[in-house]
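Q: Got a minute? One more chain.
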Amino acid sequence: MQIKSPFLLKLPISKEVVSVLISALDSVDPYVVVKNNIDITNEILSISNHSYSLRDIKRIYLIGAGKAAQQMALGVKDKLHDHIISGLVVVKHVDPFIENKLTPQIKTVIGNHPIPDKSSLESTRQLISLVNDLNEDDLVICVISGGGSALLTYPFERVGLNGLQNMTKSLLRCGAEIGEINTIRKHLDGIKGGGLARIVYPAQIVTLNLSDVIGDPLDMIASGPTVADPTTFADALIIVKKYDLKEEISKKVFTRLTEGACGNIPETLKPLDPILLNTRNIVVANNSIAAEAAMKAAQKAGFNSAVLTTFMKGEAQSVGSLMGNIVKVMEHGTMPLPKPSCMIIGGETTVTIKGRGKGGRNQEIALAVAIEIAGLERVCIVTLATDGEDGPTDAAGAVVTGETIKLGRDLGLSAHQFLRNNDSYHYFDRLDSLIVTGPTGTNVNDLAFLFAY
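A: Always. Here it is, folded:
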């Protein structure tokens, strides 16, 4: 893993900061965490705390979707080898090296993210055709990670791909939280909200989840394709009304949600459904694991460290201002930890887009922090999307110090103006302050690292 950031590399604590970032990402390596959860001994397949007798299983299939699906699938394959009869995973970016290791048993296909497209639909159709005619003595191992909601797409006929695309765009634009977005997705898409569990039934299915949702609610990770759904059509309709989206979305989408809320359309898979007796779900990695690893790495590097929270959420600019105030306290040197100190914050924010600029939630947080800490000495803040993709940009986040605003002003840049225009990417690009990792192969939300030294 190589972290590129000219500005960061000039800082006196650059080596320590980079080691903390890499430790966080390494701790949630999809290949490693999946392998660590699988074992075969004496013809007994153990997946986390669930056991299956290989003598009783006729066929094993491997399917999955998400930004980390290839790496996760390889972790399964390297444990089960020829026990897997066939498989297919849907990803955003294909790693040719991993693809070569997965073939010929497991096929890698492409989908789009964050807006599903025809490739997502076609890939999902291929996945469904692989597992829609199974028997009771078959086992499906499913690997799910962030991005799965868009990559695994099978809209109901009356909704159509266009209806789902427009709804997704509207929800992203208005700053809806991921839980709200997925609640609506589950009621417009046949594979979400337990839909995949219905498709593979009566086969058994065990799902390994790499969580990208705060608190790890299984029904929200990739919109819960193999999990009971506690949300309803009525909940989805409330969200549409909350953001005043009725006029933006297609009539077919609104009609489906309305008819569902009236009880005229069957609900998603609910708790106590007999299908769930054949399903198991496991979280193999999450934001907390990454934050904990970062804390230990910071301590090893000589920083007094703590994880403040892994439940960060809210509007990115507001969260950034709050972080800036935390840094002010840290800079004094005694609270909440004596210097040198490192506070780690995990979670995921949202951005309500009002301008026409380019950026992502982590870059927006960083710019708001920079404004708040202007003039402070010997502080450094790094924001990071653990998948390496912060919004529609090639950056994972940004790094700021107390000098950032002055450096921008020297170049004729107004941080406030860039922030109002949601144009944090171009601000940090001018300062060489972007954090660029490329696709990391994992996805467990976002992390922020606050250093005072």
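A: The first helix runs from residue 6 to 9.
Q: Perfect, thanks.
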